[in-house]
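Hi Q.,

Before the meeting this afternoon, I wanted you to have the arginine prediction in hand. No need to reply - just skim if you have a minute. The sequence and ligand are here:
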Amino acid sequence: PDVRLWGGRFADGPAAALERLSASVHFDMRLAPYDIAGSRAHARVLHRRGLLTADELTRMLAGLDRLAADVESGAFTATVADEDVHTALERGLLERLGPELGGKLRAGRSRNDQVATLFRMYLRDHARTVGGLLAELQQALVGLAEAHPDVAMPGRTHLQHAQPVLFAHHVLAHAQALSRDAERLRQWDERTAVSPYGSGALAGSSLGLDPEAVAAELGFEHGSSGNSIDGTAARDFAAEFAFVTAMIGVDVSRIAEEVILWATKEFSFVTLHDSFSTGSSIMPQKKNPDIAELARGKAGRLLGNLTGLLATLKALPLAYNRDLQEDKEPVFDSVDTLEVLLPAFTGMMATLTVNRERLEELAPAGFSLATDIAEWLVKQGVPFRVAHESAGECVKVCEAEGIELDQLTDEQFAKVSPHLTPEVRTVLTVPGAPPARDARGGTAPAAVAVQLAEVRADVAAQ
Ligand code: ARG
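Predicted structure with the ligand bound:
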C-alpha cells in the first residue's frame, strides 16, 4: 500500500531518486516518542470537538500505546519509503487500527506544526541531560579547587607569566563560565516552552481544536504559539540551542587546551590518570591527553553545526520550506557530541593529579611579583607612574644579573629607588602575594573561598 501522506493528486508515484533525497526517517525516528505523545494529545482535542467518539478515542489511545511499545522494542521499524517519522508512525497506526479509525487522527494537523513541536520537545529533554552533565563537570572543578585551596601557580596573560594566582582561583574561573552556560540552557528552555501544535501547515485549522490544551498536555509551560506562521517557520530555538551547545564546546575546549599544555614535560603541572589517557601504537613511552584533544576538536564540529544551521535559515521566506528538514541533523549531532564528550571530560578532570611543587616553584618565576613591587611603592606614597618605572628597572637589573626579584640586594634596590627599602621583600614571596588581593573576585584564599561557595550553590541549584 502507498504510505505517502499526499498521494491523492498524483498520477505517478515518486521516483526512487526523489525518495532517497527526501527521506529523513533515518535520522528523525528519534522523535518517535514525542510524535506519539503529540498524537495522544491531538486525539483528545479531536474527541472534545466531537471528531472522535469516546469509544474511538479509547481505541485510538490503545493503538498509540501499542505503537509506542513496538517502536521501543524494535517490533516496528521504518523503511525509506516511509519518508519521515510522521509518515512511518501513521503507517504503524493504520496497521494497528485499520484505515477507518487510523485515518482520522491526521485531521487538523500538519507535519509542519508537528515537527516544529516535536523538535522542541526533544531538545528540551536533552537540554536537561546536557545541563546535568555540565553540573557534573562543574562538580569536578569544584573538587579540584577544594583539594588545593592554597596552591599558587603562575597566572598568565598572553601565555606569559603575569602574576601568581591560586590554582583554585584559576580552576573556578572555568567553573564560572560553565555556570553561565548552564544558565543559558535554562533561559533557552524558558523561551522554548511554547507549542506550535495547532498551527497546521501555516494557517491554523478550521476544525475548532484547542492548541492550548495540546500545549498543556505536552508540558509547554507558556502555552501555544501566538502566530501560526511563526509557529511553523521559526527555528531560532534550534539555532540558539546550537549556539549554547557550541559555547559549551568552546568553553570546554579552553580547559582542554590548558590540560594539554599542563600535561607536557615542559609544564608538568598535572598528570592524567591512566584510565583517562591513551598510548601510542609505535612509541611505547607515550601517554597522550586524547580526551582533551577530542574536546578541542569537537568544539570545531559544534560551531560548524551552528553556522551550518544559520546558513540554512538565512533569507528563508515564510512559512515552512523543505529546507527546514536540514535543521535537525546538525542539532542532533550537537546533542550526541556533548552527551558523549562531557562524561569523558569530567572523568579526566576528576582524576588528574596536580603537581603542587611544580606550580609553587614556577608561581614567582618570570618576575611575576613586579606588580607587587609597584603597588608596594604606591602604598609608600609613590605615584604609580614612577613606581611602575622603578619596578621595571628592578626587572632589568635581574635580567642582566640572571637572578629573581627576591635575590636583589638592599643596595641594588636602593640604587633603583630610595623608596625601595628592605621592607619591600614582604611582598616578594608567593605566600605573601595572593592574600593581598582580597577584594571580591580576587585571588586571596578568602576571596577564592567565596567563589567556591558561589559555584557550589550554583551547581546545587541546577
Ligand atoms: N520531514 C519534514 C521536516 O523534517 C517535515 C515534513 C514536512 N513536509 C512537508 N512537505 N511539508 O521538516
